[in-house]
Amino acid sequence: MEIEKVTIKDEYIKLGQAMKLGRLVQSGVEAKIAIQDGQVEVNGETVLQRGKKLHVGDIVFYQGQTIQIVQ
After folding, report:
1. What is the pLDDT of residues 44-66, one digit of tens each?
2. Secondary element (H or E) of residue 32
3. CA separation, residue 20 to residues 13, 67 (Å)
């Protein structure tokens, strides 16, 4: 399984933004729907808040694709 890296400059990035940067979704609306529908996992746990703060090392899984937050 290939993991796409999403590089952040700040202390954290919000889940919806990370999904767009990692090309898991095309838009913020698509991210919002996927998250609200319980289709997104962060570090193995289903997450329902689009604004969840992700930090370096966090892993996001959605529809067979994975991204990891790096600095």
Report:
1. 999 999 999 999 999 999 999 99
2. helix 28-36
3. 11, 11
